[in-house]
Write a sequence for this structure.
């Protein structure tokens, strides 16, 4: 019988640091803001943290992120289960809720680019908070936390026209 991959046999709490880190698919969607209204409804925006690099889809200062952005969250096994705002495609959330990794996850595909090639990341879809203005003006869809098919940012077709002032601003804000 073929050996099962570690994420099918090892609980999140028991993973090594290396295994845990490798679960992150690099989608960057946790660095893109959501809004919660008074009824607890969550809305996805296309506005990202000022330290998010929308080309590489990575934090531009990962080492210092928790100091630079006090709201920046370190995902933990407990948080993976409890944070409703985490993208439904987030590998930590998927596993915490007993689901499997998708075919486009780099650990499954063997290709770090598959998350981008399959349109499952925030790459080049977002505007920096430094330039965006009011978050409320950037809502793109409702985020349904317990629906694995609710993936508004992936479904969002960003206007990548370089003449669009918003996109110009986003380019200028990258680190
Ligand atoms: S949403 Fe999850 S998988 Fe995607 S970058 Fe954030 S921690 Fe990694
Ligand atoms: S500081 Fe970095 S990791 Fe934290 S939200 Fe901003 S871009 Fe993402």
């Amino acid at each position: 019988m073929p050996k099962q991959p570690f994420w099918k046999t090892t609980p999140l709490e028991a993973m090594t640091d290396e295994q845990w880190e490798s679960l992150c698919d690099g989608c960057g969607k946790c660095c893109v803001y959501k809004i919660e209204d008074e009824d607890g409804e969550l809305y996805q925006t296309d506005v990202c943290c000022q330290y998010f690099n929308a080309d590489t889809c990575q934090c531009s200062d990962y080492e210092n992120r928790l100091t630079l952005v006090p709201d920046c969250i370190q995902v933990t096994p407990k948080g993976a289960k409890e944070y409703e705002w985490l993208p439904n495609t987030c590998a930590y959330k998927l596993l915490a809720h007993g689901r499997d990794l998708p075919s486009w996850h780099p650990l499954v595909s063997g290709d770090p680019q598959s998350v981008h090639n399959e349109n499952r990341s925030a790459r080049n879809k977002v505007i920096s908070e430094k330039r965006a203005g009011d978050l409320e003006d950037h809502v793109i869809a409702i985020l349904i936390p317990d629906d694995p098919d609710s993936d508004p940012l992936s479904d969002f077709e960003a206007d990548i026209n370089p003449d669009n002032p918003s996109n110009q601003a986003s380019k200028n804000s990258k680190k």
Summary: Residues 11-173 form one domain. Residues 161-175 have pLDDT under 50 and may be disordered. The chain has ten helices and six strands.
